[in-house]
Amino acid sequence: MDALVFFILALFSLSSTLFIIEASKIQSGFSVDLIHRDSPMSPFYNPSMSKLDLIRNAAFRSKTRLTRFSHSLSLLSNENFQSTESIIKPNNGDYLMRIYIGTPPVEKLAIFDTGSDLTWVQCSPCINCFAQDTPLYDRTKSSSHTNLTCDTQSCTLLPKKQQFCGKSQECLYSYHYGDKSFSVGELVVDSISFGSNSGVDVNNVDMTFPKSIFGCGYYNIFTADNSGKTSGLVGLGAGPLSLVSQLGHSIGRKFSYCLVPFGSNSTSKLTFGNQSTITGNEVVSTPLIIKSLEPTFYFVNLEGITIGQKTIQTGQIDGNIIIDSGTTLTYLEQPFFDDFVTSVKEAIGLEEAVDIPSPFHYCFEDPNSMFPSIVLHFTGANVPLQPKNVLLLEENNLVCLAIVPSNIAGISILGNLAQIDFQVEYDLDGKKLSFAPSDCTKN
Ligand SMILES: *[C@@H]1O[C@H](CO)[C@@H](O)[C@H](O)[C@H]1NC(C)=O
Ligand SMILES: *[C@@H]1O[C@H](CO)[C@@H](O)[C@H](O)[C@H]1NC(C)=O
Ligand SMILES: *[C@@H]1O[C@H](CO)[C@@H](O)[C@H](O)[C@H]1NC(C)=O
């Protein structure tokens, strides 16, 4: 076995035994609400914005996120691996979740992010924080906090380039997010709790993980959000510091979500532990491919796509698409995207619209026309998409394809529209990603 792969595997098994977090009600798992930032349940909700504006904004966020992924992944190629630049992580996303920190627990609304590992919140005493409506995390007011020094094993879980040591040997982190956003602070240990219902008050916290490691960020710049509504980020990537890795065996290292359609009044659900296992005869699974140099991202292998009667192949085998919850549209690498869109045009047989609004690349004008069936072929798993997963209705009866070309070589992303009304299960121990069609408003 490759020495580096071995090292990463060793780190993984170490991390899962390090943090066997005890929780009394964990047996069956638990679930929390995921709040779409543009839904009526979100503090960002703005009823005066049209659906079109919302989609355009979402598409814009997708694009900046794609750029950040690419910075991060450029470290995968050897030629850039010597770069001294910090690994850059995406910082924005479409979904929010509530977490409760410390004892007594204090509510935080944070960005849910499967594209990064470190969970962090703004923390006092703050040197530079972005606007926040609620008080900063103050560990001196939490009876359950402990500090970490540089010589602790937990501190070594930070990637080397993102870890440094303070004057009193405190474990410091520095996360840069590609644009001018970053968070710098101290790694600390305290309880993180979840409530099972939306709008729970702090007396109604359901599930507590007493010794969670997260960042107490006291130098934070967040260019994407100056609304004052969020106070940090929950990292659910595949790396050793992510919340899913920390909760470890107590949740069987797995989670699933079910995303409701855009504009729905129900909330999407994120489920941890045994409850997150999806069942039924429509479940299909594909191997999860975690790349050792960048273990954060959930790669799977997309072998091809069937459009109507025609199947096109990517010809790839070792993980060519990232499954992401924070990117709205789906991005396909060139030239595969060109084959795909050519096949869609052939199957629809309609004139392409003249004025194609950015960020789309293909629109047509008849919303009642027959749209061909589209099936994604992941290794071992065929996933039939519905029109709501691939089409967006624009103004003036214009229908646009929610799948666009990735302008960055080597990066394709399955975005969240394509995952709507599917249960999607991430099983890190089982190394598989599973899909099952579902009515997510009924969960
Ligand atoms: C989850 O389910 C599996 C299989 O049913 C069982 O072996 C395991 O003990 C359960 N885990 C927890 C934490 O209850
Ligand atoms: C942790 O560090 C902070 C800042 O230096 C300090 O205020 C706090 O008392 C320390 N907590 C413990 C438990 O030592
Ligand atoms: C959501 O709720 C609002 C107000 O209760 C209602 O007008 C709207 O039709 C609902 N939307 C859906 C998709 O159910």
UniProtKB/TrEMBL annotation:
Coiled coil regions, renumbered to chain: none
Report the InterPro entries cross-referenced here.
Aspartic_peptidase_A1 (IPR001461), Pepsin-like_plant (IPR034161), PEPTIDASE_A1 (IPR033121), Peptidase_aspartic_dom_sf (IPR021109), Plant_Aspart_Prot_A1 (IPR051708), TAXi_C (IPR032799), TAXi_N (IPR032861)
> Where does the record place the Peptidase A1 domain?
95-436
* GO MF, one example: aspartic-type endopeptidase activity
Q: Where is the active site?
A: D113, D324
Query: What's a single GO CC term here?
Result: extracellular region
Q: Keywords of this protein's UniProt record, alphabetized? A: Aspartyl protease, Glycoprotein, Hydrolase, Protease, Secreted, Signal
Q: Which residues form the signal peptide?
A: 1-23
Localization terms from the record:
Secreted
Judging by the UniProt lineage, the source's domain of life is Eukaryota
Output the Gene3D superfamilies linked to this UniProt entry: Acid Proteases
Provide the GO biological process annotations.
proteolysis
The protein's Enzyme Commission number: 3.4.23.12
Family assignment?
Belongs to the peptidase A1 family.
Protein name per its UniProtKB record: Eukaryotic aspartyl protease family protein
Give the organism, scientific name.
Medicago truncatula
